[in-house]
Amino acid sequence: MRRNIIHEGAASLTYAIREIVEVAHRFRDLGLDITWENIGDPIQKGEKIAPWIREIMHDVVDNDRSWGYCDTAGILQTREFLAEHVNKRGGAQITAGDIIFFNGLGDAVSKVYGFLRREARVLGPTPAYSTHSSAEAAHSGYEHMTYELDPYNAWMPDVEDIRLKVKYNDSIAGILLINPDNPTGAVYPREILEQIVAIARENDLFVVCDEIYTHIVYNGFETLHLSEVIGDTCALVMRGVSKEFPWPGARCGWLEVLNRSQDKVFDTYVRSLLAAKRLEVCSTSAPQLVIPRVMGDPRYPKHLKNRAAVFNARAKEAHAILRDIDGVKVNCPCGAFYMTVMFEDGVLNAGQTLKIENESVRQMVQQLVTDCPDDQRFVYYLMGATGICVVPLSGFYCKRDGFRVTMLECDDEKRLWTMNTLADAIRAYLGK
Questions:
Q1: 287 with 57: CB under 8 angstroms?
Q2: Residue 311 resides in a domain
Q3: Quick one: average pLDDT of 45-53?
Q4: Residue 317 burial by CB count (10 A; 0-12/13-18/19+): exposed, middle or buried?
Q5: Which of 243, 269, 295 is the last residue of a domain?
Q6: Cα dist. 81→35, 86, 99, 349 in Å?
Q7: Is the pLDDT at 99 greater than 70, yes or no?
Q8: Using one digit for the tens of pLDDT, what is the confidence trace for 273-320?
Q9: 3-state DSSP call for residue 118?
Q10: Domain end position, chosen among 295, 319, 350
Q11: In a domain? residue 4
């Protein structure tokens, strides 16, 4: 073309969780059965919607209002309901005007980073969730800026690393937290959150906290919302129903804006997010109408408690199978429904393989691994040999080798086969 039309950050728009699917489909076309462990979709892995939630959804669909537009920020009654829930916790207080609905958190993430001034950077964790890291890098045109999560300290944020990054890089305008974390399953205690908020306050930054898994917490931890520790610091909290009901296909998420009145620049920025949403008219109405009826139902707390107990049991099951393998580091998750298996430094090399029975698949794997990170090489061999599709840790903007696996499989026999097969494959690949 006569002009270069490519955005400077276009190359940063990567999403390893979905990109591995393209390779898996090629393997499947060659006759390999695939076990999908790449994506956090509870429905795909067999979870059934509770009948009482399904009944509410049916009733809402029968309401003509669910078929029409709503206010740009979202249905007022739903925003009032959510604001009331925030205010009941204590801490930061908000109104319905501080909540903005989006078509899933992917939509929210895109706008949160896309409407930042290009020179304003958001410091995020590594391993990083791809949607955040890609969107942040794309908006700036530079590599995503990160702080370390420490695998030898239960994947807790390295607070001193955050402090130093903020001190010596004045382009940092915000700090991102994902709590509970994806991909590690870590849950941050109050003291960690308070220390990070203090850094933001001392340096006049805002905080972004992705709380999509906030009610899937277990293994001795309890839900702690950012609003409870934020004080008077400006923040954006991201929430949704995709993992919690679960209803990923609803594409329904929202921002809770905390302390916008504390800073005129932050308030103007938030107004730009709403203005951008106004260009799309609004987000989907039906899921918003469902939220107060489901979350306000007396059966909902038990629903959340039961799901957390299920993932707690699966986390312990997977951890018991994988934790004692020489050459890997595995922390037991405390939230969400993922586990990160990290290879110790130096245990992977370009000469390791697994036996692949399907000759066509074996040839394809050999082509794929000619120039790729060591952990991606393992992932390709794992999929070629066993059909198990996981996501390499390098796909989460991480310099450590490893992979993420889910704990979503509802078929107990299939789930145990998957974890045991993973363990056997790791030992075989490492020669253990």
A1: no
A2: yes
A3: 96
A4: middle
A5: 295
A6: 40, 9, 10, 54
A7: yes
A8: 999 999 999 999 999 999 999 999 999 999 999 999 999 999 999 999
A9: coil
A10: 295
A11: no
- Mean residue pLDDT of the chain comes to 93
State which H helix or E strand residue 177 sits in.
Answer: strand 172-178
Pairwise CA distance, residues 107 & 283, whole Å: 10
What confidence tens digit (pLDDT) does each residue in 171-201 have?
999 999 999 999 999 999 999 999 999 999 9
Shared-domain flag, residues 242 and 320 = no
Q: What is the mean pLDDT of residues 16-23?
A: 72
- Radius of gyration in angstroms for the set of CA atoms belonging to the chain, rounded to a whole number: 22
In the predicted model, is pLDDT for residue 260 greater than 80?
A: yes
Angle between helix axes 51-61 and 285-295 (nearest 10 degrees) is 140
Residue 231 belongs to a domain: yes
Question: pLDDT (tens digit, 9 = 90+) per residue, 359-418?
Answer: 999 999 999 998 889 999 999 999 999 999 999 999 898 999 999 999 999 999 999 999
User: Do the beta carbons of residue 262 and residue 230 sit within 8 Å?
Assistant: no
What single letter denotes the amino acid at residue 106?
G
Q: Which two tokens stand for residue 15?
A: 């999403």
- Count of structural domains, the chain: 2
Question: Is position 1 within any domain?
Answer: no
Bridge partners for 176 per DSSP:
208
Place of tokens 């306050």: 201
**216: phi then psi, degrees, rounded to nearest 5:** -120, 80
Which of 160, 164, 213 minimizes the C-alpha distance to 188? 213
Same domain, yes or no: 353 and 216: no
Compute the average pLDDT of residues 224-232. 97
Q: Are both 207 and 320 inside the same structural domain?
A: no
Exposed / middle / buried, residue 401 (Cβ in 10 Å: 0-12, 13-18, 19+): buried
Q: Give bridge partners of residue 124 from the DSSP assignment.
A: 146
* Residue among 265, 262, 214, 258 nearest 240 (CA): 214
Q: Is the pLDDT of residue 252 over 80?
A: yes
- The Cα 111–Cα 128 span in angstroms is 18
Q: Nearest-CA neighbor of 178 among 160, 196, 198? A: 196
